[in-house]
Amino acid sequence: DIQMTQSPSSLSASVGDRVTITCRASQSVGTYFNWYQQKPGKAPKLLVYDASTLQSGVPSRFRAVESGTDFTLTISSLQPEDFATYYCQQTYTYPYTFGQGTKLEIK
Amino acid sequence: QVQLVQSGAEVKKPGASVQVSCKASGYTFNSYDINWVRQAPGQGLEWMGWMNPNTGNTGYAQNFQGRITMTRNTPLSTAYMELSGLRSEDTAVYFCVRGDGYSSSWFAYWGQGTLVTVSS
C-alpha cells in the first residue's frame, strides 16, 4: 500500500498567518492526489484535486503544489473558517490511502 | 443538486452485521462509482472500497476482505455497504462518497455519515 505521511500533525496559527502543510507519498502517485478539509462533526470537503486544481468555490488563498512525491498545501492568509483538519489522499492505485491528518488550531 | 443521503445511526453487538444505505439523487446513479470511507472516533479517514453501480463490480481494501459486501439497487438509486463480524474497533462514522474525475480520482460529494457503534 502507498503510505501518505503528513506534517505537521498539528499546527497553531493566528488569523492572517501563512501556513503550509506537507504530504509525502511513499512512491510516485503522479497527480492522483487530493486535499480535503474536515470540520468537527462534518463530512470532509474536497479542496484540491489533481494535485493542484482548486475545487469550485474554494478561495484563492489556498494553493497546492506538487513536486515528485512531495505535495504542499499553503493557505496564504488564514481566515477563521480555515481552522479545521486537513487530509491528503492518493488515488493513484487501490487501496486509496489518506494521510493521518493535520489539525490546524487557533493560537 | 447532487446528494447522498445515508441511513441512520446503528448500535450493534460484537459479532453482528450492519448494513448502511446511501441514496443518491441529482445525477445518474449508474454513471459514478460509490466509495465507502470510515472514520473511527477522533481518528483519520480510512478507505474501505468501491462499487461500480452500473456493473456491480466491487473492490475492497484488504483490511475488510471477507467481511464487507457492497451492493446496489439501481431502480432506487441506492448503494449499500454491509460489514459483518463486527468488533469494537469497527465503531466509526461510515461515509458513502461519489467518485468523480477519471477513474474515480477524487471525492467531491459525501454522504452525511452514519455512526455505527459496536458495544456489548
Characterization of the model:
The complex is a heterodimer of chains A (107) and B (120). In chain A, 0% of the residues lie in helices and 50% in strands. Chain A has 107 residues and is mainly β. With 120 residues, chain B is mainly beta. Classes of the chains: A mainly beta (107), B mainly beta (120). At the A-B interface, strand 4, strand 5 and strand 10 of A face strand 5 and strand 10 of B.
The number of distinct β-strands of chain A equals 11
Shape of chain A: globular
Mean residue pLDDT of chain A = 97
Order of helices and strands of chain B: EEEEEEEEEEE
**Which structural class do you get from the secondary structure elements of chain A?**
mainly beta
Poorly predicted residue ranges of chain B:
none
Largest interface: A-B, 23 and 22 residues
Which percent range describes the beta-strand content of chain B? over 45%
Tell me, rounded to a whole number, the average pLDDT of chain B: 97
Quote the distance from N terminus to C terminus of chain A. Answer: 36 Å
Report the β-strand fraction of chain A as a percent range: over 45%
CA gyration radius of chain B, whole angstroms? 14 Å
Write the topology of this structure:
The complex is a heterodimer of chains A (107) and B (120).
Chain A: E1 4-7, E2 10-13, E3 19-25, E4 33-38, E5 45-49, E6 53-54, E7 62-67, E8 70-75, E9 85-90, E10 97-98, E11 102-106
Parallel strand pairs in A: 2-11
Antiparallel strand pairs in A: 1-3, 3-8, 4-5, 4-9, 5-6, 7-8, 9-10, 9-11
Chain B: E1 3-6, E2 10-12, E3 18-25, E4 34-39, E5 45-51, E6 58-60, E7 68-73, E8 78-83, E9 92-100, E10 106-110, E11 114-118
Parallel strand pairs in B: 2-11
Antiparallel strand pairs in B: 1-3, 3-8, 4-5, 4-9, 5-6, 7-8, 9-10, 9-11
